[in-house]
Amino acid sequence: TIVELLIYTTILLGLLYIFTSIFSSILDIQLESETQSAIVQDSNYIFARLQYDIGRATSIQMPDSLGASSNLLTLRIQGIDHTYELNANGLLQVTTPLGSSTLNSFGTTVSNLSFRRYGNVSGKNSVSISYTLTSTAQRTHGVETQDFQSTIGLR
Predict the structure, then answer these.
(1) Which of 39, 54, 73, 146 could pair covalently with 115 via S-S, beta carbons 3.0-4.6 A apart?
(2) Do 68 and 117 contact (CB within 8 A), yes or no?
(3) What is 29-72 written as a DSSP string?
């Protein structure tokens, strides 16, 4: 009868709405997890790479004086200058005479990059690094953003 058909249709539409809501929530959680994962992976890699390169550097060329701050870092490693800087797309790059490579993925952008040189005149110097990583994926609550800061010294 028509009454039974209306009841079945109402139940079916209710179930369809519930399943659609659950599926949408699952997709939102997956996107949130992926953006958080991209930020964590990129921050770990950037920190590990800077720690490795600063640890094997013989000198810091830029910032050029103690207490100076700059948006680029130049290290001399085995007689070759390695320069860390942002490109126009918000990607952190290291450039040498042999070429350049990107340190973060396309899932994140780097901003507010700053390097500050510390140390004694006759001693080993350190570099304080600060930057902001932002996910490129749009979530329902906006983009994921985290600030990072660390200080690494020459060995």
Answers:
(1) 73
(2) yes
(3) HHHHHHHHHHHHHHHHHHHHHHHHHHHH-SEEEES-STT-EES-
